[in-house]
């Protein structure tokens, strides 16, 4: 999101941010210059009432819907006097659409669907919940084709649902192949430690590797941190696995430069939580790491098995261990895969190209044009 905002600013657009949390961007980008230099105003949607939002959310169902919509309506002025409204995540698009139904605002609404906002309603069979977004919004931008089809199946007009990938700036990431032929094989994961990231399966697969010299670094915090540490102990690999917790972006980039294999065996959460297409995979592939992931959500749109990385079925520990063993034993055959991965990111997940495309869409809508 920060990069998309930066892309709009670079193209002369004025950007304001209305959000729930005033720490927007800081938690996951603690040293990111795009946060520090954001030019437009950043305001809280609910103002002083925002401090009570998490408490009020405990009242689920119709009462919460009515209360939150009433507060949104009372603060609708913060969404006026703009040419286009871009809502990140379906639930925020729904909030705007409900205000539009009451004619409080009229700017074109573009909603970007990222992951859990599609996965959980799919799991609960409640994607129809977004019908006001489909009716009032002019464009839905899911981040992968899997989500596009899900939204169409839920009632969105196919002409108003366009895949728009998130991306990275490969020009800012140096590609460097490093072989593990003679040294210690270094695995790394960078993610929030939640169920859908599948780190448990990475640990179990690594425990099944034939004996050789390897280490595994896990960067990120989350509710599963302590549980995963205990899993590593139980598997007898705690001496090879380091849980580093959240780290500044600069340190993450350095550790990626020192690693060989990027592990992200994503799975569908038991609550339906899904990935979009993880940016961390793109960054690793751009930098020359071998990416290993799963046939999950939109990930196959980024990684083609044995062509630009490696994929296994979700939760298949034996298959994952088999792929990791093959990779460990064939560094020479992996080098052209790493190069092809870099080219894939440059061609299809290049933020400079994607931001230009997004800016053109927004400019066209802001001038009263259509999306076609």
From TrEMBL:
Keyword Chloroplast tagged: no
Give any GO molecular function from the UniProt entry.
glycosyltransferase activity
Q: What is the designated name of this protein?
A: Glycosyltransferase
Source organism's superkingdom? Bacteria
Do the record's keywords include Transferase? yes
The record's listing under InterPro entries reads: Glyco_trans_1, Glyco_trans_4-like_N
User: Which PANTHER family does the entry link to?
Assistant: COLANIC ACID BIOSYNTHESIS GLYCOSYLTRANSFERASE WCAL-RELATED, GLYCOSYLTRANSFERASE
Q: List UniProt keywords, sorted A-Z.
A: Glycosyltransferase, Transferase
Domain Glycosyl transferase family stretches: 185-342
Family in the record: Belongs to the glycosyltransferase group 1 family. Glycosyltransferase 4 subfamily.
Q: Name one Pfam family in it.
A: Glyco_trans_4_4
Name the enzyme group at the top EC level: transferase
The UniProt record lists the Glycosyltransferase subfamily 4-like N-terminal domain at 3-165
EC number in record:
2.4.-.-
